[in-house]
Amino acid sequence: MRFLHTADWQIGMRAAHVGAAGERVREERLAAGRRVVELARAEGAEFVVVAGDVFEDNAVDRVLVQRTGDVLAAFPGPVYLLPGNHDPLGPGSVWEHPVWGSHENLHLLDRADPVRVPGGTLLPCPLREKHGQSDPTRAIPPRAAGDGIRVGVAHGTVEGIRQDFPEFPIPRDAAARRDLDYLALGHWHSLATYPDAAGAVRMAYSGTHETTKFGERDSGTALLVAIDAPGAAPATVRHATGGLAWTSLERELREEGDLARVRAEVEAVADPERTLLSLALSGLLFASEGDELERIREVVASRFLFGKSDAAALRPAPADESWVEALPAGPVRQAAARLREAAGADEVAARALLLLYGLAREVAS
Amino acid sequence: MILRGLKVEGFRCFADAIEIGPFDERIQVIHAPNGTGKSTLFDALRTALFERHRVSGAKAEVIRPWGRDLAPTVTVEFAHGGEEYRLVKRFLSSPSCELLRREDGRFVRFAESDQADERVRALFTSSSFGRGFSGFDDCGPFEALWAPQDRLLLRHDLPDEIVGAIRESLGVQTAAPGTDALAAAIEAAWGEFYTPGGSPKKGKSAPRLARLEAERESLEAARREAQESLEKLEESQRRVEQYRAERDAAARAEASADAELRSVRARTKEYAEAAAARDLKKARAESAEGAWRALTERVEAIARVRKERAAAAAEAARVAEDLAAVSRERKAREAADAEAAKALREAASDRDALDAARAECDDAAALAEAAKAVAAAEGRLERLREAADALAKAKAERAGYAAPTDADLKAIRKARSEAEKARAHLDAASLHLSVELVEGGRVEVTAGDEVGSREVAAGEETTIRGAPEAALEIPGVAKVRARGPAGDAEEWREKLAAAEKRLAGLSSAHGTADLAELEARVERARRLDGAVDQAKARLDSRSEDGSEEEVAAARAQATSVRDGILARRPEWAEVAPDAAALREGIEGREREHRERLAAAESAREKAAADLAKVREREAGLKARDEAVRGRVADLANREEELAADAATEEERQKRLDELAMGWAAARAELVAAEERLGEIGDDPREEEGRLLATAKACRESAEKALEREKAEEGRLGTLAEAGAWSTLAEIEERLSELDREIRSEELRRDATDLLKRTVDECRAATVSAVADPVAAAATAMLERIAGSRLGRVRLSEGLVPAGVEPPVAGDGVDWSHLSGGEQEQLHLAVRLALGRLLAKEERQLVVLDDILTATDAGRLTRVLAVLEEASEHLQVVILTCHPERYAALPAAARFDLAAALTGPAR
Question: In whole angstroms, what is the distance from residue B21 CA to residue B23 CA?
């Protein structure tokens, strides 16, 4: 048995955190879906399993449902789709769309009944609600004659993942409990495998096929799974499927010139059209580098698919007093001194100081 | 600066030259009455120091003496910066300027013309000359130290130059050059967000932040709308789910009801058959019972009717006997009643005679009463007529007597008084020329009130009155003429004529102007009015019981009654009967008649009652007799009907026994059928009906749920197709971007605001560093003058008084709320405090022109002490028209300006 395990496509995902790039991010999730299908075809997968959350919500636009169905239908073999907690089964859900009935290779796992697949049996655990505290794999029936390789398909939280109220908790040893050769999981967006005592990976999260946010590790992936026989250790191969780079840079400035080096680093980021960049600066800001900071802001904001820069943690360099001494004596210089004192702990004061520096330069010129 | 001397010539009120000086370095009082030119001296000093000598124009022309073509010239000798100067300026006509400096004990030319102007000005101020004549608006640093008349109060912020000088004297760090430009740049940056008043900018000039916030607000509304659409979608999904659940539940309930129904229907068939058998047996038992009961009732009825018929026949015989006896009694009672009726008619027959006697008696009494009323009415009529005649007579007498009214008399008195007054005044205003001839002779009056000749006896004095002239001639001897003031006499003559004319007019209607006569007439008229009132009162008193017409009507009515009675009884015309005797006789007869009649009526009532009773008994017996006879007949008919079967009693009893046995057998069969039915159980048909209804209700419920489900699915489809999800996604993404931009703009705004506030605070601290020492010095002086009541002096940023902070008022008091005197003292204290600071390097000139006009004597004494102390550092020049107010300045140099007009004086 050879199949491709993917999950959490989250088609129609709202990407407020990336502003105007949201539309592109949404489109890229569909494009990543095409890459998954192409990967499965290229790797000779017999079928594809999508372990839940194909869609971000049951309310996503119907045209997206149609387009997703069409993407999946391009795979030459069967594709098995599990309703997850984002798109649970129910009236008016995306699963009532006619596209699922118009392609013969698309199979909705809408019942907890065994499904025969080449070489074995799929044991699906579809979700009918967005929230739940029960183990979805409880519905998996015991091994029956002729099951062959038993592959469970479920959507939930494996015990051990830190969460106050784990949604649809799945025991760490669910594969063994349910007598499964492999349990294909969805819900968490980072790839994660769970070896059994013998070191065989019998349950895994494939990770979302396209990264959804900054800081999400090991995402933009799919798993190619091969199981030779019932009881044999599954062979899992990770494949990258993501198209966008979500890059986070955190840099601390210590001396004059650091800011220029940061700018060079930012400008060197490859493929900026496909990169979403988050730059966080901390440390010391020298008054003379105010313009450099503005340039970095401009580069981050204009060069990348999406860019945000955070300079709130920058503070005026304490030794940088020359320009203050150059201010006209009297209230303005006194004000500058006061702002310098406050700027260490106050972003507004730091910004005010920079503003005064800029105005002084303008007036002087 | 120290003023040494001043010479003014051709300047305003000083056409000739006047020279004042030399001045003391400490304090001097220049005094003169109003209009002498004290303020002009002050004006000349300021004009020389701060106006160009070439100044011209209408404003400048005012310094030229009125109506003279002179060139105003001022010479000022002063010391400044350790040098002694003499400045000579000539204005308007051939203007010139010359500045001399003392060198080696003598004044040497130092500068002239425009250079001299500029050099002098530069000694005191860095500002340039204004355009045209500036007046007291331009006196450089002396604005704080020189107080022109009525301008002691410092109403505007002091120029930066003075504030700077004060700051310098205090060693406070001043704003270095470049500060203003930078401050303006900060202000401009701040102005991007705020109005000059500090409010956030709105409208077209609003900053980008406002537009971003407006867009965010608009997007928030759109986001709520999209969110609501999604909520509707979710709600619709829930409803579809609910309808599906309802439909499933209804279908399950219907299937359950159908299964139950099939079971119940089998039981129903068995039950129906048993019930039918039971009903048949029941009908048979009821039929047998009915036959038995019918025959039993007939046998009993025949026996009962026979017994009742015998009893009724016996009663009929008893009633016939009673009826015969009562008929006999009724006849006896009818005879007695006829007898009593006859006796009653006889007793009532003398009623008519008694009524006639009663009428005669009443007529006699009415006749006597009518005669009496006629006599009384005639007496009252006579008295009323007598009173009416008296009133008519009094009125006629009053009407025939003419007299003025009180108002007329008052007007006459007034006119008379005015005439007498005018006459007295005329007499007083006229000339009286008295002549006494020694030998007698003729005197010709040629002017006066009575012109003409008159003879005057020897030794007799004659007086000629006239105005404005009285003149006489003693022929051959002398002409004498006397004249006096003309106005008064003529006026009083006119008043006299007017008063006499008015008096004549008022008295002409009465034929006399004699006041005594007129007053006597008024008095008599009052008496006649009294007589009329008295007669009227008498008539009113007699009319109280009726007017003459009413009394006459009463008399006519009484006469009519009397005549009517006499017409009916003409025999009473001569002698009227005694009504009392007649009444006594008739009353005895009437009493006897009433007693006899009452006895007859009582006897008749008893006879009639007895007859009625017996008739009633007879009628009752007749009705009973008829009823008893009818009942006997009815019972006979009933017996005949019951026995119509023509059977014997034995036959009937046998038949009755047969029916009883048949009924018992039918009852036994019924019990057996009911036991069979009981074995089956309750009637299942009711349950079947209930199940049928349940199944139908479930079906209908399922159909309705399906309808609702389909309809909701339609709505759901529409909502899903609306694409609210994508709309919301796009809105949230834009909102997120906006939030970032807004945060960035807010940071920029807050930073700009913080920068401006910090600079403002530093500037305020600098100002405070200058103002506080001035305020402290002024406070100390004010406390010496006015005591501690006013508290601490508060200054504005421009170093002019803002108010005071009395210990009892927490928030301070604006200076305009102080009394006039205290306002003067506050502003003087501030001026002197400023002077002390400005005089740190060099003694400064303070000029006070007729100030402290509202300050009382007590405080003035303390003010003078303060001034004397201030003169340790300041040269004080006081200009006043009240030198005595400054007598308490013994060390002061005094200049009498009036005396100086004739030459230099001290």
Answer: 5
The structure tokens listed for B526 are 């009052």
pLDDT of B591 above 70: yes
Please indicate if any CB of chain A lies within 8 Å of the CB of B724. Answer: yes
Instruction: Give the H or E element holding residue B776.
Output: helix B724-786
Contact list, A92 vs chain B (CB under 8 Å): 233, 236-237, 240, 713, 716, 720
> CA of A250 to nearest chain B CA: how many angstroms apart?
19
pLDDT band of residue A288 (cuts 50, 70, 90) is confident
**CB within 8 A of B688, min separation 6: which ones?**
B261, B264, B265, B268
DSSP label at residue B157: P
Measured at the CA of A342, the angle between CA A336 and CA A344, to 5 degrees, comes to 115
Q: What are the beta bridge partners of residue B466?
A: B431
pLDDT of A25 > 50? The answer is yes
For residue A311, give the chain B residue with the closest CA: B744
DSSP element (H, E) containing B87: strand B83-90
| Nearest in space to B76 (alpha carbons), one of B143, B23, B127 | B23
Q: What is the pLDDT of residues B505-564, one digit of tens each?
A: 888 888 888 888 888 888 888 888 888 988 888 888 888 888 888 888 888 988 898 888
Cα(A361)–Cα(A348) distance, rounded to whole angstroms?
20
How far is residue B235's CA from residue B232's CA, in Å, rounded to a whole number?
5
Q: pLDDT tens, B337-390?
A: 888 888 888 877 777 888 888 888 888 888 888 888 888 888 888 888 888 898
- Look up residue B747 and give its two tokens: 């940071």
DSSP B173: P
Mutate to test the interface with A, among B737, B743, B768 (most CBs of A within 10 A): B737
How far apart (Å, rounded) are the C-alpha atoms in residues B701 and B694?
10
Contact B735, B219 (CB under 8 A): yes
- Token readout for B241 is 């789910």
Q: Which of residues 191-230 of B touch A (CB under 8 A)?
A: 230
Asked if A89 and A106 count as a contact pair (C-beta separation under 8 A), the reply is no
> Residue B165's pLDDT is what?
78
At residue A30, the pLDDT reads 96
pTM of the predicted structure, to 2 decimals: 0.52
B750 contact partners, CB below 8 Å, separation of at least 6? A348, A351
Rounded distance, CA A69 to CA B835, Å? 94
Q: How high is the mean pLDDT of chain B?
A: 87
Distance from C-alpha of B48 to C-alpha of B45, rounded to nearest angstrom: 5
DSSP for B523-567?
HHHHHHHHHHHHHHHHHHHHTTT--HHHHHHHHHHHHHHHHHHHH
